[in-house]
Amino acid sequence: MFGKLLKYELRSTSRFMWILYCAVICAGLISGLTLRFVIFGNEAPQPDGSSIISVEGFKAVLATISISVYVLLIVAMEVLTIVMIVLRFWKNMLGGEGYLMHTLPVPSWMLVTSKTVIAILWELMAGISALISGTLVLLTSGIGFEILKEINLREMFADLREFMNIGPTQLVLLAVFAGIAGILQFYFSMALGNLANKNKVLFSVLAYLGINVAVSVIRGIISFIGISLSSHIGATGMMVGIIGWPTVILYLLMAVGFFFGTYLIMENRLNLE
Amino acid sequence: MSVIFECRKLTKQFGTVTALNNVDLTLETGRIVGLLGPNGSGKTTLLKLANGLLKPTSGEILINGIKPGPVTKSFVSYLPDANYLMDWMKVSTLVEFFRDFYRDFDAQRAFDLLADLGVPADAPLKTLSKGNKEKVQLILAMSRRAYVYFLDEPIGGVDPAARDYILGTILRNYSENALVLISTHLIADVERVLDEAVLLNSGMVMDHRPVDDIRETHGMSVDEYFREVFRCSVNY
């Protein structure tokens, strides 16, 4: 049954997402080629020798537009991915389609898990698309090889450890748990909002904001304790509150807590309109 | 016949509004039962509770002795009074969806019924008319060989000619050991297929009797009896 849920979840969500990710990859290519023209393109012939400045100006405008559009597109892709994940859950679990999904002979935890798995898949796809697209910009523009050569992972991690007190393992785990907790925070907030008999959307938003405040407070406390206990933590670590294992564990606990919260509401307090 | 549906002191409140009030109701297999009542009497709430879409405030609801959950959902077929299907799916994909999730689903029966009612199987649901969408929902619900059918307003949105066919479909397709509970206010249309009637008013069961008993005792049809009982007290 779980496999079938995944199959239909993937089918339902994949209709628009592929187009979005292909667009982002194509945009990488186009942006890269535009930048190549800006950097290495031959200047237009100037028979009267008067247009050097305007050609340079044109190139600068072109580069700015190209980079702005590109960055906007990447941001739009990330936002649309999250919007799709949120709307999908709302419509399919708590809206009209909930009548169908909640009368299937499957336990509630399976419904929530299948939604989470496919949502993680789309977040990964968004990340991979951005990575491919960004690499394409660097490679097609011709400036990429230099930059790619400059990247030194060992040094990056050494810096991270020094300034933020976080190692590669912790960083990967943090990204995974924070990603999952982020999705499940949306689900849990909507499940909470659905308990209200009126203004379900408003209560969902309030629940989401409330959880954010609570998480910020907990992270603040962890940072404070971490800083008090250690003399080696850099100023950046204090500011963003990423203090190694305690934060990793916090996000793991958040993911587990939001999952069970969502599951228990679906199981015991479902309140479909 | 044996008891398959039971409500014990079932109460459901939405905030301060009581939708169902201390309902005791027992229904047996092999019966077609009409759940009749005016708007807001608690019919849909009762069916949603029976399908686990709402949870009781107090009391309990049992189907074949078990509370609504994955087990009861495998033998209960529910037709909600709402657009609940994924409308971007083709009708044939929806048939496939039901076949994938319900072991008792008969896809051949579904395709036969679609053909009989002239609903195109390869069309996306959102391109169909309102009436045809309702037919698809009913066909999917009735193509299961379930023990219990909960049908919430099954004929509300279709034309009178299709109503007869649909009621015929319900009669032909439910097995003898199944319970069919039909919620409706179109009593005249469904009356001829009913064995029993449950009259619900303001969240309470007012009456629960075989329809023949109503006809003999009161000398009127169930529809007339309903109008008599629920006559709006208006003074001209």
Q: In terms of topology, how is this protein built?
A:
The complex is a heterodimer of chains A (273) and B (236).
Chain A: H1 2-40, H2 52-94, H3 98-101, H4 108-141, H5 144-150, H6 153-164, H7 168-193, H8 200-229, H9 235-240, H10 244-268
Helix pairs in contact in A: 1-2, 1-4, 2-4, 2-7, 4-5, 4-7, 4-10, 7-8, 7-10
Chain B: E1 3-14, E2 17-28, E3 31-36, H1 43-50, E4 58-63, H2 70-73, E5 76-79, H3 91-101, H4 107-116, H5 130-142, E6 148-152, H6 160-173, E7 179-184, H7 187-190, E8 196-201, E9 204-210, H8 211-218, H9 222-229
Parallel strand pairs in B: 3-7, 3-8, 5-6, 6-7
Antiparallel strand pairs in B: 1-2, 1-4, 8-9
Produce a short descriptive summary:
The complex is a heterodimer of chains A (273) and B (236). Chain A has helices at 2-40, 52-94, 98-101, 108-141, 144-150, 153-164, 168-193, 200-229, 235-240, 244-268. Chain A is mostly helical and 273 residues long.
Structure, described:
The complex is a heterodimer of chains A (273) and B (236). Chain A is mainly alpha-helical and 273 residues long. In chain A, 83% of the residues lie in helices and 0% in strands. Chain A is built from ten helices and no strands. The longest helix of chain A has 43 residues, at 52-94. The two termini of chain A are 26 Å apart. The termini of chain B are far apart. Helix content of chain B is 34%, strand content 27%. The A-B interface holds A 1, 4, 7-8, 12, 15, 96-100, 102-107, 197, 268-272 and B 14-15, 48, 51-55, 69-71, 73-74, 76, 78, 80, 82-86, 88, 97, 100-102.
Tags for this model:
heterodimer; A: 273 residues; mainly alpha; 10 helices; 83% helix; globular; B: 236 residues; 3-stranded antiparallel β-sheet; 9 helices; 27% strand
Which band does the percent of strand residues of chain A land in? under 5%
Q: What is the typical, i.e. mean, pLDDT of chain B?
A: 91
Overall residue-averaged pLDDT value of chain A = 84
Instruction: List segments of chain A where confidence is low: pLDDT < 50 over at least 5 consecutive residues.
Output: 237-241
Count of strand segments of chain B: 9
Helix share, percent of chain B? 25-40%
- Major beta sheet summary of chain B: 6 strands, mixed
Provide the succession of SSEs of chain A: HHHHHHHHHH
Q: Please, how many helices of chain A?
A: 10
List segments of chain B where confidence is low: pLDDT < 50 over at least 5 consecutive residues: none
Question: What distance separates the N and C termini of chain B?
Answer: 48 Å
What is the count of DSSP helices of chain B, taking H or I runs of 4+ residues? 9
Gyration radius of chain B, in Å: 18 Å
Q: Which term fits the overall shape of chain B?
A: globular
- Overall SS class of chain A: mainly alpha
Largest beta-sheet details of chain A: none
